[in-house]
Amino acid sequence: MTTANYYINTPLFKSHQLKKQYGLDVVYKMDCYQPSGSFKIRGMDNFLKELYGQGYKKVIASSGGNAGYSLAYVGQQMGISLRLIVPVTTSDYMIAKIKLLGAEVEVYGANWNEANDYALQISKEYDLPYVPPFDHPFLWKGHSSIIDECALEMKEPDSIIVAVGGGGLLCGVFEGLLRNNWLKVKVVTAETEGAASYAKSMAAGHLIELKEINTIATSLGAKKVAAKALEYASQFNIEPYVTDDNSAFNACKDFFNEYHTLVEPACGAALSYVRNNHSKINPKEKILVIVCGGVSMGMEKYLAYSKQYQ
Ligand SMILES: *Cc1c(COP(=O)(O)O)cnc(C)c1O
User: Fold this and answer.
1) Which class is 40-134 in CATH?
2) CA 266 / ligand 1 centre spacing (Å)
């Protein structure tokens, strides 16, 4: 059984920019510094350790985003090979990055659902484990280490800002909050308008499936969140927050100018909360933003978006 962690403990950085601009106390949990560029490596590290323990040497998955990229990264380190099925919508940029880590990438299907159905079929056919992108307790357990690390360095904040796609990160955050007894904190769930599956489900009181995804924050593009993410909600004080693509992108730009690290618009959704709500925030509040990262926006895409989203 392998015991090394392939993710790293990331630092907490104060935002001097937001302090100066709005007089607010904001700290960033810098998971954009993970070797795979996002928090997803935490969950994949834990998931593959479980499979490695059971003797598996090859897995199947279907994410052409950060889940696939982090899985390929950990797999390569552990000696577990990956066959990844991605839909035609996956960028050449991401396919090249994932192949660089030694994964076998096959393009199939018009969208993620079609690619995923095919991945599930192959996993049954070859009797190989299927690794999901967000809806699994092994992933949540891995993600929950993010809160353990914060709790070693800071007191319970007043608010914590978390981006929500399928809700895997959110479930990990809830798990970590419970374990560390951070039960009073307000959890702000950040999404963009074209991917607001969590905010819509919270408003309805039951799981809502979106008809389509329409946002540049592609990593938030799950039509339906994990059921557990909604179940946990009754135990916490939650503020669903929805922003637009322009503000998510411009928050990435501000963050780049402050800490010189490029993150995805998915992460920008969380980063935009303080900019867009500063007038409503009590200056005594301590705010923790999970900088979830993401590698799908390279420099070329960044430059194109910066023309489009002034
Ligand atoms: C996956 C991802 C998210 C959303 O996480 P979920 O677990 O799907 O809610 C947000 N930001 C980035 C950069 C991601 O890779």
Assistant:
1) alpha beta
2) 7
